[in-house]
Amino acid sequence: MVNEGVEPSVVSYNNLILGHCRKGNMDLASRLFSEMLGTGLKANVLTYSILIDGYFRKGETEQALGMFDQMVDLGISPTDFTFNTFINGLCKVGRTSDAMDKLNKFVEKGFIPNCMSYNSIIDGFIKEGDITSALAVYREMCECGVTPNVVTYTSLIHGFCKSNNIDLALKMRNEMKKKGLQLDVTAYGVLIDGFCKRRDMENDVNSSTNSLKLVYILMQLSIVV
């Protein structure tokens, strides 16, 4: 491209940076970013969003935070995609409480959280074993008028199964069905795994009831598949 005398644009650099980020080559992505700035081109919100996501995926949290601060300092307004990328990134590296604090600050600046925003935080708390905080976020989500989706319920069901609370997991499944949402293979798999780990199909007290539950879930799963 350059040899033919065609000048690369911000879009050209963004695509190359994205490619390196997806492969985890953050050093090359950073080098291209610097090269782009050196040509006089100005990075846009997409450039920063790509780099923020790349650094989080690589586990380089401080670099991701630095990129976000640099973007804001330059007067570049984050988009909903940027905010969600930032929130999800913090949750993925085990800093869900920080993500929740950031979300509240973003809301003060006019950001309207969507289902993806809340799902990231719910999943983050569940992975950290904090089902109480996950439920609090779920309630806040509903109170704000954001409708939970299959991913939301699957995360909560997974959390209840992990905490050995199958009854609440099934209650959440029922609530999901009342809202007209169909469980997917992942959700059914989580429930089956929960029953199996509890060995409910072998328990003398609850064997018949829970075996029937397990068979029922397997039958539904076969229908979905």
Can you characterise this structure?
- The protein is an all-alpha fold and 225 residues long.
- It contains twelve helices and no strands.
- The protein folds into three domains: 1-77, Serine Threonine Protein Phosphatase 5, Tetratricopeptide repeat (Alpha Horseshoe), CATH 1.25.40; 95-146, no CATH class; 149-225, no CATH class.
- The protein is elongated and about 70 Å long.
Record keyword descriptors for this entry.
225 residues, mainly alpha, Serine Threonine Protein Phosphatase 5, Tetratricopeptide repeat, 3 domains, 12 helices, 72% helix, elongated
Task: Give a quick rundown of the structure.
This is Pentatricopeptide repeat-containing protein. This protein is an all-alpha fold and 225 residues long. Helix content is 72%, strand content 0%.
**Assembly status:** single chain
Note the overall shape: elongated
Name the average pLDDT. 87
Tell me the major beta sheet.
Answer: none
In percent terms, what proportion of residues is strand? under 5%
Number of helices: 12
Structural class: mainly alpha
CATH class of the largest domain: Mainly Alpha
Strand segment count: 0
The gyration radius over C-alpha positions equals 22 Å
And the CATH topology of the largest domain?
Serine Threonine Protein Phosphatase 5, Tetratricopeptide repeat
In terms of per-residue confidence, which ranges show pLDDT below 50 for 5 or more consecutive residues? 203-208
